[in-house]
TrEMBL record:
PANTHER family: D-TAGATOSE-1,6-BISPHOSPHATE ALDOLASE (PTHR30304), D-TAGATOSE-1,6-BISPHOSPHATE ALDOLASE SUBUNIT GATY-RELATED (PTHR30304:SF0). Dihydroxyacetone phosphate binds at residues 178, 208-210, 229-232. It is an enzyme of class 4 (lyase). This is Class II fructose-1,6-bisphosphate aldolase. Binds 2 Zn(2+) ions per subunit. One is catalytic and the other provides a structural contribution. Transmembrane segments: none annotated. Zn(2+) 2 binds at residues 105, 135. One of its GO terms (biological process) is fructose 1,6-bisphosphate metabolic process. InterPro entries: Aldolase_TIM, Class_II_FBP_aldolase, FBA_II, Fruc_bis_ald_class-2. It comes from Candidatus Fimimorpha faecalis. Zn(2+) 1 binds at residues 85, 177, 207.
Amino acid sequence: MLVSAKEMLQKAKAGKYAVGQFNINNLEWTKAILLTAQELKSPVILGVSEGAGKYMTGYKTVVGMVNGMMEELNITVPVALHLDHGSYEGCMKCIEAGFSSIMFDGSHFPIDENVEKTTELVKICAEKGMSLEAEVGSIGGEEDGVIGKGECADPQECKKIADLGVTMLAAGIGNIHGKYPANWEGLSFETLQAVSELTGDMPLVLHGGTGIPEDQIKKAISLGVAKINVNTECQLSFAAATRKYIEEGKDLQGKGFDPRKLLAPGTEAIKATVKEKMELFGSIGKAE
Ligand code: 13P
């Protein structure tokens, strides 16, 4: 059964490790992430962007697939199904469809409007036992057409949003979605420290997990990050493994064109990436 991300993230914050949010795109992605989490006894969050939700034909399909898969695969570790960077309307649809967690990305609204909409969602999520992520200070890069500049959040605004009763808070600290440019300045630990001090026990969320050097990930966790989002890295490893399979001409040998064979190396590659991240984030064995 899907669970809210609240308990797993509060435990992670207290235990100084982070739970990975891995974004899903289809059946292979979902299967690879769930099986890895179960094998490694790690809690996990399945992220679904609005674009990926649409791609999978809608949120109800996603809920049906994930619930069915958890039952058929006997997944017993805590799993949250989470809307990533949701609009207000997207949040409503996911609440209705049976997600266990949502992110309302009000970072592009003036702070008062972000507060107003977040407040409404805090109330609904509390009634439904769902977790809610809010965002302050947009995350840079491009994700499903949403473009952010990678600004640093204002710590006072973070406190204002955290005090509304959200479950976890994404604060921009110079992180961006996708690959980091060569001239990237790195995470702003000064901002993270200030946000952390003002928001106390609130689990903080680090978006744009792809390509952040290991030492910066570890430092971010030590300063209160308890959820780290990874999307692009799984896409890159899936694509590289699939490319290798085709370039080696394996699709032309025997029944190598069968999608169950063609997509297998990519699926294994996602598993390896998820495992590597869970090791780095320290979440292995935390679901025992
Ligand atoms: P990456 O694609 O950079 O890993 O970012 C994922 C993310 O933050 C999803 O919200």
